[in-house]
Amino acid sequence: MKKKYFWIIYFLFDYLTAILSWVLFNYFRKAYIEKYEFEINYKLIISSLLIASLWIVLYTLFGNYKNIYKKYRLKEIYQTVSQAFSGIILIFFFLLLDDEINSYQDYYKLFIALLALHTSLTFLPRIILTSNIVSKIHNKKIGFNTLIIGNSQKAKDTHYEITNLKKGTGHFFIGYISTVDKSDVLIKSGLKKLGNYEDLSKILIKEKIEQVIIATEPNEHQKINNIINDLANYKVEIKVIADMYSILTGSVKMNSIFGALLITVNPEMMPSWQKSLKRAMDLIISFLALILLSPIFLLLSLLVKLGSKGDIIFQQERIGMHNKPFYIYKFRSMYTDSEKNGPQLSSQKDKRITKIGKFMRKTRLDETPQFYNVIKGDMSLVGPRPERQFYIDQIISKAPHYKHISKVKPGITSWGQVKYGYAENVDEMVARLKFDLLYVENMSLTLDVKILFYTILIMLKGSGK
User: Fold this and answer.
1) Is pLDDT of 182 > 60?
2) Number of H helices, E strands in the chain
3) Of 421 and 79, the one with more pLDDT
4) Widest Cα–Cα separation across the chain
5) Homologous superfamily of 144-264 in CATH?
6) What is the pTM of this model?
7) Where in the chain is the domain with CATH 3.40.50.720?
8) Residues 6+ apart with CB under 8 A from 224
9) CA–CA separation, 58 vs 61, rounded Å?
């Protein structure tokens, strides 16, 4: 089975073991707790299928079926036990606490029985599958297309070190790209030169690269930063050769005893379960907001229409996650044809802003139609503010690290928006950028809640810039 479809095997075993554990649990409950004769009937079949489906939903929320080939055994043990415990608590609270029992000790017996059955039956096929994957990686039978970026000698040393480890690390080396202008010779160790750095984009796509190892000198910080920025728009895992400073400061995190000393630059920004909850929170709050704010929307629509000629809703192309363009929606706060001479940023004393527009901007009410963008999936409640390509090009020329912003969905509000409000020029956009980058690298539901809280305060005070 192809690598990208292998998650289906995990899925099927999880579903079947969830059904089996529920059937065996019901046998234990009927035969040993309730002292009734056990029988497989229509009700048990339906409940088993439903319970198994709920388990699959839970596993999906926790990201169990992502990056199957990057699983390892200790993580599998932890995930199985913790998820089983969490899921069984939910089952007991919602399905089993109202059951008729002889004493509360029976609840403990039922809980332990279901936990033991579900955990053991789920864990057994998982650990077999994961062990099989780990074994194939260690034996260099499966892996990920890997590109080394650096000068020829450093690339050669890195390739030699990794390929001569006792166990494989999952790197299938396709070749290397030179970061120096002079013409390098092919490396005799078997690592082929694929081209120079200018060919990066073409090679990444052509060779279907999944991992990139930056093998420059440790003191070439600016070169490393430039490479990381250039790779930001590609779905590749970036690793950097560790130096002694990185080891001493704790930057090197090891998952494998036999692995190479590499720093992972772009780890998962948010746990899968938090991503799922973030999306659920986006949808629930956006639906509620559109319903509860509908009277205000009607009033604003009337005021915008009476205040000046033009459409009530203003739409404009912005750049979203993975540089995908989309149309953003806002209540029109400017007179029509405000950009007839080309794109212009607004300022606090901008004469293009209507009277109702000034009020809406201070209270952020002009942004509220973007709840529809959130429901569509173009945006999130919290995330870096989306910009137009015209300004993105200018920002990148001054701050190349802006490219990392595209790794997440843009938001209605952001850390940078709370701190700076609307930017009046490119320099302010760049200054606001550092807060958005901090958000991207520290994404969490807790941080989202804090940013939403301060956004609401700004709306109530009318202190928005």
Assistant:
1) no
2) 16, 10
3) 79
4) 83
5) NAD(P)-binding Rossmann-like Domain (3.40.50.720)
6) 0.75
7) 144-264
8) 214, 216, 240
9) 5
